[in-house]
Hints:
By secondary structure, the chain is α/β, with parallel strands linked by helices. The protein has helices at 18-26, 52-65, 79-89, 111-114, 117-126, 145-154, 161-164, 190-196, 210-213, 215-223, and strands spanning 3-7, 30-32, 71-76, 94-100, 127-128, 131-132, 158-159, 178-184, 200-205. Helix 3 (79-89) links the parallel strand 3 (71-76) and strand 4. It starts with a strand and ends with a helix.
Amino acid sequence: MTTYVLVHGAWRGGWCWRDVAGRLRAAGHHVLTPTLTGLGERAHELRPDVGLRTHVDDVVGLLRGADLREVVLVGHSYAGLVVREAADREPGRIARLVLVDAWVGPDGASMDSLAPDFFRKWIDAAATDGVIAVPPASTVGVTEPDQVAWLEERSTPHPRRTFADPTRLTGAVDAIPARAVLCVPARFPFGEWARGLGYATVELESGHDAMVTAPGALTGLLLEDA
């Protein structure tokens, strides 16, 4: 049995992993899907001062509090930055990292520093009082009506500071085996960033929110890391 910790991206919550988590559990694995501070069922905790470090602390707290070992730590999109920093702080607990269409970079990188100009401008336009409004599901490749409704009913605004805060890494994370799942066709240079860190990559034909649009195929890839 493998322990998977699946960390969601911006605007989502642990709920978004429902179909993947169910499949992994049916295969006999232990699966945790934490919700980061200020999002999902923790939306009442949303404050402008919630930053990247807050979310890293969420994941580190789970790893330590449950005394998890030999974890396959999975981060989607924005959570690529979260899980890399969490793994850097607790490298002895992590067996493998999996980055799913994820934002990643070296020490000091942030969403803002990595983002193309058009994305930063869109984020700034969508942000009010320190929070970023939920974008339409179509922007992440979710178009099937039932999936759109499920996603948009549950998504919540995201703290702007998390995109500005720089990653703090000692380099310990670079010794952890890792690979990147790249959703194609690509909208951002996730593959370039992952390969720049020396990560192996595998492509998955899916929208950006693959846990919603292609849960079976994504689960199959994650099972390879068991």
